[in-house]
Design a protein that fits this description.
Blueprint (H helix, E strand, L loop, with lengths): L4 H11 L6 H11 L2 H13 L11 H13 L3 E4 L7 H4 L7 E6 L8 E5 L6 H16 L3 E4 L5 H9 L4 E5 L12 H10 L1 E4 L12 H11 L2 E4 L7 H11 L3 E4 L7 H11 L3 E2 L3 H8 L3 H5 L16 H10 L5 E2 H8 L3 H13 L3 E4 L3 E4 L2
Parallel strand pairs: 3-4, 3-7, 4-5, 5-6, 7-8, 8-9
Antiparallel strand pairs: 1-2, 2-6, 10-12, 11-12
Helix pairs in contact: 1-3, 2-3, 3-16, 6-7, 6-12, 9-10
Length: 363
């Protein structure tokens, strides 16, 4: 790890503290310089907007987490570490810390996400497996979510050459249960990644967060089979928002599992049919993948906000999502002040962040 043991401990305390998410974590580090200083500032920041007293994660809990992760054979990967994936680090809401098992070097290689239906057809699974195998032969790592169907087929096809599985729970959680052996093989022969703390059982709310990591890690996302409004299409949308290639394999309009892919193509995704076409599309991103994660979003908070600024921002917010840029425009305030007010509201538990730099008041 690139940071000191004390700093590791403080960073873990900060990200595990209530109401501290990926964006607020990075804002706090940018604002206060160190995790230790940010931890001291948490109660005051939350209190500025009428929040209840915010207590940081306790040292005892962090000690237990570190010891438990070591017992299950896991390791930490922090956003400033040299092995942190460059493309993932470009996301505004990139995970400040991941846990992993396996070959972390795979995270710094160019990779493609392959996702699709859980109830995939035999033909779809065969296609995913074959394309994943061919991508591996071209030194491209295949990333997926270890779900049933297309995900599992993609991992199986790429096991021999390199595959990354991003799971929704903690690094020690297995889901679905029938993938115990496959998950163990990925951890031994590839790379297993998790954002949730070890010991966390996967819940429905965790899967969108997992999907953003799959999309963010990858130079491009390929959807093999998917129904409309599926998690696979969410992953594809996140990939597009991150400026990555979105690709889809077309299918028969008579099969509901092809409608999501056909819809993506109609909306602008690139139609692909084999590994060669995929490799050609992602080639321009190769240099960015191999660079150090120096292109991380910059958070600059040099301007404190007063009660007048807080009230102005609060009046612009509602239970409906609004773009942060729109709040800056309508308020006429410097972005630094707007972001500070939003940070205070989030720490107080009064603000929710959505995709695409949007925010709203919590219920």
């Amino acid at each position: 790890m690139a940071v000191s043991d004390i700093d590791i401990f403080d960073r873990l305390r900060l990200i595990r503290s209530p109401n501290v998410g990926p964006i607020s974590y990075r804002q706090l580090i940018a604002r206060f310089g160190t995790a230790s200083a940010a931890l001291e500032a948490l109660p005051d920041l939350a209190a500025r907007v009428g929040g209840r007293k915010l207590t940081a994660a306790g040292p005892e809990a962090i000690h237990r987490e570190i010891e438990y992760l070591a017992r299950v054979g896991g390791h930490y990967l922090f956003i400033n570490d040299a092995d942190y994936p460059a493309l993932l680090g470009e996301l505004e809401n990139a995970p400040p810390v991941l846990t992993y098992k396996g070959n972390i070097a795979l995270a710094t290689q160019i990779n493609v996400a392959m996702v699709g239906a859980r109830n995939a057809s035999a033909a779809g699974c065969r296609m995913a497996r074959n394309i994943a195998q061919e991508l591996g032969q071209r030194d491209i790592v295949v990333t997926s979510g270890l779900a049933r169907g297309i995900d599992a087929a993609a991992h199986q096809g790429a096991l021999a050459t390199g595959t990354i599985a991003v799971i929704a729970g903690g690094i020690d959680a297995v889901y679905p249960p029938e993938h115990t052996e496959l998950q163990e093989r990925v951890a031994a022969e590839g790379l297993l990644l998790a954002e949730m703390p070890p010991g966390t059982e996967p819940r429905a709310r965790h899967f969108p967060y997992r999907n953003r990591i799959i999309a963010g890690l990858s130079a491009g996302t390929v959807v093999v089979e998917a129904i409309p409004k599926s998690g696979s299409l969410i992953t594809a949308r996140l990939a597009g928002e991150a400026g990555r290639e979105v690709m889809a394999i077309p299918g028969s309009p008579l099969d509901p599992r092809s409608r999501g892919c056909n819809q993506l193509i109609r909306e602008g995704a690139t139609l692909v049919q084999d590994a060669g076409e995929i490799a050609e599309l992602i080639a321009p991103l190769d240099q960015r993948v191999r660079s150090k994660p120096s292109a991380q979003p910059h958070f600059d908070f040099i301007a404190e906000a007063g009660d007048g600024e807080r009230n102005a921002i609060f009046e612009l917010l509602s239970p409906n999502f609004a773009a942060v840029d729109e709040l800056v425009r309508l308020s006429g305030m410097p972005s630094a002040q707007v972001q500070m007010v939003l940070l205070e509201l989030e720490l107080a538990g009064r603000l929710e962040r959505g995709a695409g730099a949007r925010v709203r008041l919590t219920a």
